[in-house]
């Protein structure tokens, strides 16, 4: 059962026996919290694309992008607040397709909405309490506001923990 938390972080599953948490960050604040909680040595799983190069008999090299789910043992992490992206770099430990990727370096770019699996190698209790904290907070609350001006303009906005979003802008047509 998935649970949405304060910042919108959706916890899909927690498996203590496998030391594994699956989640989806839904705000940039979630990306910051993930940056703080994921440790070097953890294995991070996500869908990504990888360029595969093949050499032809005539010596030319062809390449194609292939969608693959991989696990990367984290060596380095960085957070880019301007791009609203978490970047995780490490060596591939798992691939769902046999493309001879194990042991090669790869960077996972985690954006808002990217499903992510985390296997904690050392401190699972910290990761587990992080996930449980978000589960206990329950669904994010929001408020809908309607603004109507004297000039028959209207704006509907949604206010939530993740920010302000304009849902609709328009004009009222007079029935006179």
Describe the structure.
The chain has 176 residues and is mainly β. The chain has two domains: 3-137, Pelota, domain A (SH3 type barrels, Roll), CATH 2.30.30.870; 142-171, no CATH class. It has helices at residues 28-37, 124-137, and strands at 3-4, 10-15, 20-24, 43-55, 61-80, 85-95, 105-111, 116-119, 142-148, 153-160, 163-171. Strands 1-2-3-8-4-5-6-7 form an eight-stranded antiparallel beta sheet. The model is unreliable at 1-6 (pLDDT under 50).
How do the strands and helices of this protein lay out in sequence?
Layout: E1 3-4, E2 10-15, E3 20-24, H1 28-37, E4 43-55, E5 61-80, E6 85-95, E7 105-111, E8 116-119, H2 124-137, E9 142-148, E10 153-160, E11 163-171
Antiparallel strand pairs: 1-2, 2-3, 3-8, 4-5, 4-8, 5-6, 6-7, 9-10, 10-11
């Amino acid at each position: 059962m998935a649970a949405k938390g304060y910042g919108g972080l959706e916890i899909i599953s927690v498996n203590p026996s496998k030391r594994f948490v699956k989640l989806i960050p839904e705000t940039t604040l979630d990306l910051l919290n993930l940056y703080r909680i994921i440790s070097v040595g953890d294995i991070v799983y996500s869908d990504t694309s990888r360029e595969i190069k093949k050499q032809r008999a005539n010596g030319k090299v062809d390449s194609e992008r292939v969608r693959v789910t991989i696990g990367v043992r984290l060596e380095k992490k960085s957070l880019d607040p301007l791009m609203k992206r978490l970047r995780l770099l490490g060596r591939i430990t798992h691939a769902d397709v046999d493309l001879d990727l194990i042991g090669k370096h790869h960077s996972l770019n985690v954006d808002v909405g990217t499903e992510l699996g985390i296997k904690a190698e050392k401190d699972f209790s910290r990761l587990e309490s992080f996930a449980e904290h978000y589960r206990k907070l329950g669904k994010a609350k929001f408020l809908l506001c309607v603004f109507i001006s004297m000039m028959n303009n209207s704006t509907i906005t949604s206010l939530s923990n993740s920010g302000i979003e304009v849902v609709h802008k328009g004009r009222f047509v007079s029935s006179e």
